[in-house]
Write a structure and sequence with these properties.
Blueprint: H1 2-32, E1 36-38, H2 40-50, H3 52-73, E2 78-91, E3 98-115, H4 119-186, H5 191-226, E4 234-236, H6 249-259, H7 261-281, E5 287-298, E6 308-316, H8 324-391, H9 396-430
Parallel strand pairs: 1-4
Antiparallel strand pairs: 2-3, 3-5, 5-6
Helix pairs in contact: 2-4, 3-4, 4-5, 4-7, 4-9, 6-8, 7-8, 8-9
Family: Belongs to the outer membrane factor (OMF) (TC 1.B.17) family.
GO cellular component, one term: efflux pump complex
Pfam families: OEP
Length: about 425
Amino acid sequence: MLDMFKKNLRKRVMITLASGFMIANTIVFTVAAAPMELTLDDSVALALKNNPSIKMAEADLTKAGWSLNQAKAGKGPTLSFSHTDSRIREISSTTGIAYVDFYYKNQATLALPLYTGGRVEGNIDKAKLGVEYYGLGVEQAKQQIKLDATTSYYNLLQTRNLVKLNQESVDQLDAHLKNVQAQYGAGTVAKSDVLRSEVEKANAEQNLIKAQNNYDLAMASSNNVMGLPLDTQLAVKDELKYEKFGKSLEDCVQIALANRPEATQADTNVAMARKDIDIAASGNKPQVSLNANSGWYNDEFPGADNNTWSVAVVTSLNVFDSNLTKSQVKGADAALVRATEQARQAKDGIQLEVREAYLNMLEAEKRIDTSSVAVTKAEEDFKIAQVRYSAGVGTNLDVIDSQVALTNAKTNYVQALYDYNSNRAKLEKAIGTAVK
């Protein structure tokens, strides 16, 4: 009996431990699978941190910084050293006999440009403009990523709301179907009412499936913008809401022309094109440099005797180059015309972008008001249709039509809120709002 008791006790302990292990695993799995909670600010911060577009723009800026160092190097001295090992066949002037001799030479050369006709200075100024240009590119990339993260977040909110809305529609039609089936069982309605209600519920379930798929796609898209694994589950904390925008269209256009990185980049590109003209024109100006040489040579390795040196100021002037410099100047002139027109086109495009975003935002704002009123009236109409049908004075079609109208009204309201917020985000980007 004692042995049997011990065996049973041991068995119960093992079962308890195994159950505890399974529960612990279940708890760990549940925690690991918990969705990531995000606000809009969280979404933007993750996108700015992880998105490769910003890293590529920053790499371009780093490269421009090194290009500036390269241009500045053209103004400083250069020191070079060369060593030459030679084997020379010569004929003696006294005996007339040929012999082979060895010759070793070492030479150090120091060169300092004194005047380059503006070529070096032009390259430095252009490189500085390049740093400014790519610095603006980093800000442009940040603004675009912020917009992408914001619109994807709003899209996630919209699709989530549409899932809730379609689920609500399914629940309403399911409740109505049960009411119709009950009345059919009592013999107060025809079989056609049951069939029509079943069809409408099935259609609503189809819409719910589509809405859920759209939500899943929106989540994957948002993960992509934020640099997260595409299967990451998200739980968004915010809601689509309406906040009044306080600036006029004219103010927005002026702010955009002053703040947009693309507008400043276009002006910088024009300035760089002007520098190219100066650089090309330097070919017609004299070049002055200071050269110093020191050499050692003899017939024994490594050639350390017979020191020679020289210091010279060398001036050169291009007299004829088959119109090479002229062609370069004319090409730079044409590039300046193109850059100027590109700047004008870019600024026109910015104004158009601001206007489109602003007007679309206003249009959505008006739809928010009208669709909100429509939702209120559609809810009242649906309730009346339900009461009338239950009382036997209304038709099944009245209930279904009013429910469809209610779903459409709520869908229009959600769409209007999304359109307003997404176009407001586009407007913020269009006027060049800085990313903090």
